[in-house]
Amino acid sequence: MTLNIKQINRFFLMACAPFIGLIIWLMVSELSITLPDSSYPKHALTHATVPADTAKLTAGLDQAKKTALVTAKSLKKSIQLYTTTNRNMDAIVSIAVSQTNRPYRIYDRRITRKIGAPTQQIESDNVRAQLFVIHAQHFNGYALKVKLKSPKAMKMVLGQDKNGGAETTLAAVDRYNAIAGVNAGGFADDGNKRYPLGTTVMNGNYLNGFAPSYKDLFFVGLNDKLELIGGKYRSKSHLDSENPRFGASFVPVLLHNGNALPIPDKWRTSPLRAPRTIIANYKDNQLLFLVIDGRNENGSSGATLQESQLLLQRFGAIDGYNLDGGGSSSLVFNGRVVNHPSDGQLRPVPTHFLFFK
Q: What superkingdom does the record give (predicted)?
């Protein structure tokens, strides 16, 4: 609620009207005061010598005084009314703000209940990160729900900060003093170096140039509005239109607009079950990461991609993407490794998503 400028102008015009009227009256009355000649002795000046106009002036001043007193009282009442109105407006604004945030709180409670009760939570002006434990029929895992409050809350980093470098997610978290970290995209080995697959974007720049999506490979990352973007991009201009800040590539896309997409035959059984790392989002732009445990990568433990889709839908996610899994699956929260890496220890990988308090 805001005060109209015309209303403010009308208020001050009414408040000043008596004084303006007094000035106009003095101007049109053509009053004059005649002083006695200096040669007259002082004792010769009597009441009779005072011009008649002086009496009119005195009467006018008395009337102006009365008007000023009335105006002062009116101004005092107006100020009191203005102060009371301000208090009421502050209360209305406070209620409006609380009501504006109410739908978000209701939605957040609804999606959080679907995952369960968080076992740990870290919150600051930049981020809120909640950790959940998942117990399913054929596997166990963890969910990390993240609300990004500022651009400082999340970034993607390269292993050892160089192209071709690799390090564990825990090492990257410690080096950047992050509160949490998850492994990101897939990679290809080249001797002692590991290079990210497909298109990789760091700080708005293409690491190895743009690589058009082929077969089941996709790109997933965040744009300049902290929104999750992803899918298959056939041209650089297509991806540029999404304003990517950072992102990585892997296979395949799991969920789009809440609907499960067909899993390509190759990924249905190769392997059937495995440790998984998945990134997804909600309607309010919160992020959801799933990190599923598996004792090995031969398909006898872990989750299938179809089960991962069902889990995302059960948790109310909108879009979901399968990140590098198997021995690469890593979840670090509050300084410790949360999941149980299938290699028995964390694997050095080239890209990591990190979160900051």
A: Bacteria
Residue 206 lies in a domain: yes
In sign, the C-alpha dihedral spanning 298, 299, 303, 309 is: positive
Where does a domain end: 104, 124, 142?
104
Burial string for 130-157 (b: 16+ CB within 10 Å, else e) reads: bbbebeeeebbbbbbbbbbeeeebbbbb
Which pLDDT band, with edges at 50, 70 and 90, does 47 fall under?
Answer: very low
Asked if 74 and 180 sit in the same domain, the reply is no
Q: Work out the end-to-end distance of the chain between its first and last CA atoms, rounded to an integer number of angstroms.
A: 35
Rg of the chain taking only CA atoms, in angstroms: 37
Taken as a whole, the chain contains a residue count of 357
Q: How many domains does the chain have?
A: 2
User: Under a CB-based contact definition with an 8 Å cutoff, are residues 197 and 188 in contact?
Assistant: yes
Tell me phi and psi for residue 65, to 5 degrees. -60, -45
3-state helix, strand, coil in the chain (%, to 5): 35, 25, 35
116 vs 144, 261, 285, 323, CA distance in Å? 12, 25, 19, 23
Express each pLDDT in 154-182 by its tens digit: 999 999 999 999 999 999 999 999 999 99
Closest CA to 85 of 13, 6, 8: 8
pTM for the model stands at: 0.75
**Are 295 and 224 in the same domain?**
yes
Whether residues 190 and 240 share a domain: the answer is: yes
Range of the domain at 144: 116-355
Longest dimension (CA), the chain: 128
Using DSSP's 3-state secondary structure scheme, residue 148 falls into strand
The alpha helices in 274-321, defined as continuous H runs, are 305-314
Distances in Å between the alpha carbon of 24 and those of 18, 27, 69? 10, 5, 19
Same domain, yes or no: 235 and 293 = yes
pLDDT for res 39: 46
**What strands, in cross-sheet order, belong to the sheet with 205-206?**
205-206, 201-202, 244-250, 218-223, 228-231
